[in-house]
Amino acid sequence: MAVVKIGQVKQTLPKAMQYICNPEKTRDMELVSTNLPDVGKDPAAFAQYFLEEQTRIETGRAPTKTTLVRAHHIIQSFDPGDDITPERAHELGVELMERITGGMQHYVIATHTDRDHIHNHIMLSPVNLETSKRMRVPRTYLKQLRTISDELCRDAGLRVLKEPKVKRYGKSRPDLYTQLKGESVKESIRLRIDQSVGRVESFDHLKRVLRSVGVFTHVRGKYLTFEDAETGMKFRDSKLGEAYDEMNIMVKIGQESLECISFNKSMIAKQDSKNVSIWVPGTRRKKQITVPRERLVIDGQTIRAWLPRDSDQVLSDRQGRFVQQIPTEGLYEYFTPPNLNIDKLIRNSFPQVYTANPKQRRRLMAQAFKVEEVNSVVREISTVREYLLEGGMTSKQAVDAISNTIRDRQADLQSLIVASCEEGLTGEQVESLDAQISSSEKQISDLARQVRALRGREQQRTRTDDTTAQQLGKHRGR
After folding, report:
1. Can you tell me the distance from the alpha carbon of 252 to that of 255, in angstroms, rounded to the nearest whole number?
2. What is the spatial distance between Cα 397 and Cα 408, in angstroms, rounded to a whole number?
3. pTM of the model
4. Which of 255, 287, 431, 459 suits a disulfide with 283, CB 3.0-4.6 Å?
5. In 3-state terms, the chain is what percent helix, strand and coil (to 5)?
6. What are phi and psi of 122, to 5 degrees?
7. Cβ distance 425 to 433 under 8 Å?
8. How far is the C-alpha of 160 from the C-alpha of 381, rounded, in Å?
9. In the chain, what are the domain boundaries?
10. Under CATH, which architecture does the 2-180 domain have?
11. What's the CA gap between 223 and 245, in Å, rounded?
């Protein structure tokens, strides 16, 4: 039995070629083949040929549109229960391409053996060699691929999936099989992060290890984005859970609670292969702090340093001589404390709605939005009563108090994550820690919702006051 799906590569063709031809996944590229002429087995050459081929049909100009498809990425996955060798799976992939293209398109096929199921990655050039025009993929193309793949599997003595009797909406057939086997893309990414984070020394090292297991890591402002190389699906850290954001990833790497300071690259006093020395703000470049490189996360011109919360930090002068020793949290007298990203801390409260009727799905989602609106009003009333009426606080005081509670809960969460990284834990201990981590994340999310409710109320009052002032001004002007 083989499951077939198709995607497109538009901007990252060299990276995609490099991934599918990974020697560790393809028996040192033994399971890589192509019908490209005179290119050997070089992923960079494969990508270059595809791009040059497209340049030739575009009147000799280099491609400029980033929306153009540079390759069609086809994945043909075989069931672990099938008795099939990697070599035979590769042959079936070649036969599939020859049947669907008639020899009129170039392709690269790589068979991966690193998972429990053997699967082919196929990069198909969009250029038709006979017409010298771009291939237009009709809606029926995926069905054609699956039909031919099923015929090949049947001839090879493999099981074939039966077509469903009713029209389905939402998840595709591969996604449904994946979910049934407990291998959702999100869960797969979480698992690969957990397996990798305990054997790395720095964030850059983690990015390299994750890349080797098919997860690309992107640093984009306050968020990390994880991309599954096989499916192309991308998830922000907040979609995986707070335990997978930048702060808690660094906690897992160092297995200790951390504080963060951020600075611009222009603040670097000196650096070498192991350490970076940073000018301390507000000291007129008379004091500096030295940080090991493995504690840094680089985001363009901004660098974040993750320092042990329970250790003291040493400041030195221009010559590197000792000046003073202060607690890590004491650095916030010089560096700006990190702001709480409230929206990022709030968990999505909408349930996934799966139904065979799209109209019913839209109606149920609309109802879910209305319920959330009511919950938001109730939450605002409850928060106002607790902090403003009974507590006698102003809105700002309440926001500050809840924010401080969130930081305390985040510290507790860090401690739980550190504990979960210890070796030799029993199954019951792991389950208990996971439950505590989930509970801590929910508490933080609930507190963040209270902050958002208070801020929304304050913004509404400000808009009302501004409108009233404008109306009074117009009245006096008359």
Report:
1. 5
2. 17
3. 0.48
4. 287
5. 45, 20, 35
6. -125, 125
7. yes
8. 57
9. 2-180, 186-333, 365-473
10. 2-Layer Sandwich (3.30)
11. 7
